[in-house]
Specification:
By secondary structure, the protein is mainly alpha-helical. It contains 15 helices and no strands. Helices cover 58% and strands 0% of the residues. The chain starts with 5 loop residues before the first helix and ends with a helix.
């Protein structure tokens, strides 16, 4: 099974360090209430102004923090520490909070950016170093703001969004659950588990009508991975058997075949490289719960998807600004 190597870690760090401070091109996400709201990315977001968009800047910092924890003596470690020192200051956090305080920013980056910010905080909380503890303490007020947003939104979230893009409820819950476990936030953990169970517990015989032309997540597999984190192991195994009952037959076939990417300079089509990487991540996590007759098939599918995505991380900036995050997820998963 493929794992993170020092060479790959250095490549991932090089890519992320090359774009987390690259302000343009940039796709802003904001509601304008007047001309006073107009400003450049760095003025609006003192930490997360690079990487083409806010959420990619957030998860690229997660990537850097995770690489540093996994390989603290790696070749890129000094540059990563310098970037995190530069980014995570009280002044910069105050600037990010000022943007969130705008009434028009109520739905900013919900739920994808919210969840990635919490995943970043979880990674810093797990660091176990003096630097990590300092960065975690500095960023904690920003994480707290997104916890409050989750707590305000969950009671009103009557239905999930079952998509393969940023709106995916299941994917956001996976990241938020990881945070709640890392910091032992029992209230958030219970709210997430209760909501997810209410949405997904009755699902069965998934047809996996995917991918769409812009998916970077498998709507089917991220739902299963979300439920793996919500249910006790025995209950999840029973749920998973109902949800994908024909895995031993290689069905649904669409889940086993990597997506074809026809144009990596097209930001939407380039999402499909991310789909291949995120499927590899999910398949690896779910393989132990597949029927014994299907486990080799599932693990082989994970490797095929990884091999389809890994060579193309920096083929074009439309992928380079985010794909290494999903490569690291595929190789090493979350937390741990």
């Amino acid at each position: 099974m493929s794992r993170l190597t020092p060479a790959l870690a250095e490549d991932f760090a090089r890519m992320a360090l090359g774009h987390v401070t690259r302000e343009y091109p940039n796709k802003l996400d904001q509601v304008l209430t007047g001309e006073a709201d107009l400003a450049g990315p760095r003025a609006l977001h003192p930490i997360f102004y690079g990487s083409f968009d806010w959420h990619s800047a957030v998860h690229s910092h997660w990537l850097l923090a995770r690489l540093l924890r996994l390989q603290p003596q790696g070749a890129a470690a000094p540059a990563i520490r310098a970037r995190l020192d530069e980014a995570f200051t009280l002044e910069n956090v105050a600037g990010e909070l000022n943007f969130l305080a705008r009434p028009a920013a109520r739905g900013f980056e919900r739920p994808y950016g919210w969840a990635w910010l919490l995943a970043l905080q979880a990674e810093l909380e797990r660091a176990g170093t003096n630097d990590g503890r300092r960065w975690a303490a500095t960023l904690r007020p920003l994480a707290g703001a997104f916890v409050q947003r989750f707590q305000g939104w969950l009671p009103k979230a009557s239905y999930p969004v079952r998509s393969g893009v940023h709106s995916s409820s299941a994917f956001a819950f996976i990241l938020a659950l990881d945070y709640a476990e890392a910091v032992r936030d029992g209230a958030l953990l219970e709210a997430l588990k209760t909501t997810a169970a209410g949405w997904f517990a009755g699902d069965a015989d998934a047809q996996a009508w995917e991918p769409s032309g812009a998916d970077f997540l498998s709507a089917t597999l991220v739902e299963a991975e979300c439920m793996r984190r919500v249910l006790p192991a025995a209950r999840f195994a029973a749920w998973f058997a109902r949800f994908l009952p024909r895995l031993a037959e290689g069905q649904p076939q669409s889940l086993f075949e990597p997506a074809r990417v026809s144009d990596r300079s097209d930001g939407q089509i380039a999402h499909l490289d991310g789909l291949n990487l995120s499927r590899a991540w999910c398949w690896r996590a779910l393989a132990p719960f597949a029927p014994e007759a299907a486990q080799d098939r599932v693990l082989q599918a994970a490797e095929r998807h990884l091999e389809a995505g890994l060579p193309h991380l920096d083929a074009d900036y439309m992928g380079e600004h985010w794909l290494a995050t999903y490569a690291l997820l595929a190789l090493e998963g979350l937390g741990g």
